Amino acid sequence: xxxxxxxxxxIRVIRGARTQGEERGVIQRECAAIRAQFRxxxxxxxxxxxxxxxxxHMLGYPAHFGQMECVRLIASPRYNEKRVGYLGAMMLLDExxxxxxxxxxxxxxxxxxxxxxxxxxxxxxxxxxxxxxxxRDLAPEIDRLLRASNSYIKKKAALCAxxxxxxxxxxxxxxxxxxxxxxxxxxxxxxxxxxxxxTELCERNxxxxxxxxxxxxxxxxxxxxxxxxxxxxxxxxxxxxDPFLQVRIxxxxxxxxxxxDTASDAMNDLLAQVATNTDSSKTAGSAVLxxxxxxxxxxxSESGLxxxxxxxxxxxxxxxxxxxxxxxxxxxxxxxxxxxxxxQRHRGTIVDCLKDQDASVKRRALELSLALxxxxxxxxxxxxxxxFLSSCxxxxxxxTTSGIFNAAERYAPxxxxxxxxxxxVLTTAGGDVRDETVPNxxxxxxxxxxxxxxxxxxxxxxxxxxxSVQSLVQVACWCIGEYGDLLLRGECExxxxxxxxxxxxLDALETVLQSHMSSPATRGFALTATMKLxxxxxxxxxxxxxxxxxxxxxxxxxxQQRAVEYNALFKKYDHMSVxxxxxxxxxxxxxxxxxxxxxxxxxxxxxxxxxxDITGLTLQAAxxxxxxxxxxxxxxxxxxxxxxxxxxxxVLLNNPNKVGLHSDTxxxxxxxxxxx
Length: 676
Hints:
Elements: H1 7-15, H2 20-39, H3 46-58, H4 67-74, H5 79-92, H6 104-111, H7 116-129, H8 132-146, H9 151-167, H10 172-182, H11 188-204, H12 206-212, H13 216-228, E1 236-237, E2 240-241, H14 243-257, H15 261-277, H16 283-298, H17 303-316, H18 322-335, H19 340-344, H20 347-352, H21 359-372, H22 378-389, H23 394-411, H24 415-429, H25 437-447, H26 452-465, H27 470-489, H28 502-514, H29 520-533, H30 541-550, H31 557-572, E3 577-583, E4 586-594, E5 599-608, E6 628-631, E7 646-654
Antiparallel strand pairs: 1-2, 3-4, 4-5, 5-7, 6-7
Helix pairs in contact: 1-2, 2-3, 3-5, 4-5, 5-7, 6-7, 7-9, 8-9, 8-10, 9-11, 10-11, 11-12, 11-14, 13-14, 13-15, 14-16, 15-16, 15-17, 16-17, 16-18, 17-18, 18-21, 21-23, 22-23, 23-24, 25-27, 26-27, 27-28, 27-29, 28-29, 29-30, 29-31, 30-31
């Protein structure tokens, strides 16, 4: 490729490169040729070469060596060179580079040029990359152009003033008088620039904001003129008269009406008119309506107008454009706390958005649905949320479960419903719940005393069905350890009881302990539950000891420590598990628990290993006069055959003199002396 190749030819060759290396080679050769020509005297190709260099810059290759060429071309008297020079300055220069200061004088001269197009180039460049120092130096020139008679220049000057105010906020006072006078212009471009400039001034200075509140009636008339005007080909966009200017005016009205009753009252009728007369079938109309809604919600508007705004957002939810549905739900999320009842009317549409294919729409619909949960709709809305949980994307599961838990905790109609809901969530997405879920659920179960039997039966069923969900398994193990006696009893009014034996329960816990899916924490729950069952069952204590002792040499340090401590407990209280009678298939065991220095609780347990039931069982006890005896009612008077059941009776003793005690028929030689 020769150095004098045209821009179009260079673009064709670069695009035709088959590899990145080939492209780099082409660009390096062309850049070398451009450098060489920059060093030569002006031969009329400077703007041509800089244009090629700007294309190279757009591809991401270094082009900084063209900065000084931009300065030279800006100072050129030829318009075509000046145009490329200003374009290069906007692309290659910024306020951090010293070269940008070299064009300040050229810009100042061009702002006074006789051609409006040269003035426009200078204004656009200053608005794009003017530094704070340049803005201070050239601010008087911009203020002068804001008062010019040329609408084309005034529009550009207004937008340049916006950049200056952002760079140097104190310049706002200089532009305020001129900005106010621009509102009387008829040209839409000038009005657009004026509204943007006034918005910037009001956002940065409270005094200026108060000053421009007096212009609210003028802005309202301007907006009414746009809404009620007939068809104008110059400004019409999809049937809406200059929607860009309408949106800018609405944003300015929102700032002026915020926290001000007078300004808000002056624009209420206008906002109602815009909300009812704007067609939302096209994007342009939707944009105007959306800004109207934001303005209504941000100012001190009437209640009826706020309901109208919420209804507009509700219509947006039915729009086929996902972007419109998204911004609608984003807006509803912001106002759901202040206008809860109005938003609640669109609950069905919001819930339907949970089925949207777009992930961002789903997330917004989820957040809004959770915000709509109340004591009135908790049951119906929770069904929808649980249904969504079963099919929601993995990245939304943690947020969904957390939201459901919070809603259930605040609005649960009953403790049983609360427990059922959390168990449903654990079954569906137990791997995505937060760490505090398990202790929170355990606390809930503990306080629901009347539901202990129901809960332990339900959790046992869940445990034998699936042990992969760690949080659910942990709660199930804890519940079985605490209320295993209710499970073994096989009686439950709240749910259909399950006939469970001691071996069944221990088998389930042992499965958890041996499963590769169980985490160390889950095994800890299972081991502790197994240990607790030693006080609630009678025939498998030795099996429990065997299970616990195995983990005394476990590789997991915490699990090993628990097993060692539990084994120590077994040995410490061996002397409190005493057989006092064993004859003709009947075994009577005595277990003591010292309550005070002289008080003791004795539990007598009778079992029957014969082939027939033993009926009419009566346990009697006699004590010396110095001992006070209180016998509680026995658990029954029939001992089932084959060891399938037992009868227990509690005896309370108060023995201040600590005398020896005897059975009716048997001397209790092994009665624990350390109990006294």
